[in-house]
């Protein structure tokens, strides 16, 4: 669906299982191996957080839906269109939320290159290459 190859990159990666979050983290980063995907996530999450904070400050409850709608609404298409994989959220929702927060903190600290290295290492060790 949405550009994911049946039985391909996204399918193989979505079948991973992990015992701990520490095992999951490099996989999560690998699912975001392209910088554009990471930046779309950051933009969507920060926009959602801003609108949620605005809604809380102004007492406008409808804005509380902004975080999941904008956060997921921007992140998921990035997986389908840029990464050509399925979001890790589908198989690991809570760890994915934690991973998103960790990834964004790392990016805001100016360490995006560290994420790219982690992704490349995981993909190389697990025999996975980037999609086309």
Descriptive overview:
It is built from 6 helices and no strands. It is mainly alpha-helical. The protein has one domain. The longest helix is centred in the middle third of the chain and has 24 residues, at 35-58. The radius of gyration is 15 Å and the shape is elongated. InterPro entries: Mpo1-like. This is Transmembrane protein.
Give the uncertain stretches in residue-range form. Answer: 1-14
Radius of gyration: 15 Å
Overall geometric form: elongated
Distance between the termini: 16 Å
Q: Tally of extended strands?
A: 0
Strand percent estimate: under 5%
Give the structural class: mainly alpha
What do the pLDDT scores average to? 83
Q: Figure out the total of helices.
A: 6
> Helicity, in percent?
55-70%
The figure for the number of domains is 1
| Largest beta-sheet characterization | none
Task: List SSEs in N-to-C order.
Answer: HHHHHH
What are its keywords?
membrane, mainly alpha, single chain, 0% strand, 132 residues
Question: Strands, helices and their partners?
Answer:
Layout lengths: L8 H6 L6 H10 L4 H24 L7 H18 L9 H16 L3 H14 L7
Helix pairs in contact: 2-5, 2-6, 3-4
What can be said about this structure in brief?
The protein has 6 helices and no strands. The protein has 132 residues and is mainly alpha-helical. It has one domain (21-125).
């Amino acid at each position: 669906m949405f550009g994911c190859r049946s039985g391909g990159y996204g399918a193989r990666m979505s079948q991973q299982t992990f015992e701990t979050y520490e095992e999951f983290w490099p996989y999560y980063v690998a699912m975001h191996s392209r910088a554009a995907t990471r930046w779309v996530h950051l933009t969507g999450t920060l926009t959602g957080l801003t609108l949620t904070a605005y809604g809380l400050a102004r007492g406008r409850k409808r804005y509380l839906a902004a975080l999941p709608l904008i956060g997921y609404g921007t992140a998921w298409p990035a997986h389908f269109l840029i990464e050509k994989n399925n979001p890790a959220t589908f198989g690991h929702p809570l760890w994915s939320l934690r991973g998103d927060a960790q990834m964004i903190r790392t990016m805001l600290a100016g360490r995006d290159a560290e994420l790219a290295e982690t992704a490349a290492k995981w993909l190389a060790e697990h025999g996975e290459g980037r999609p086309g």
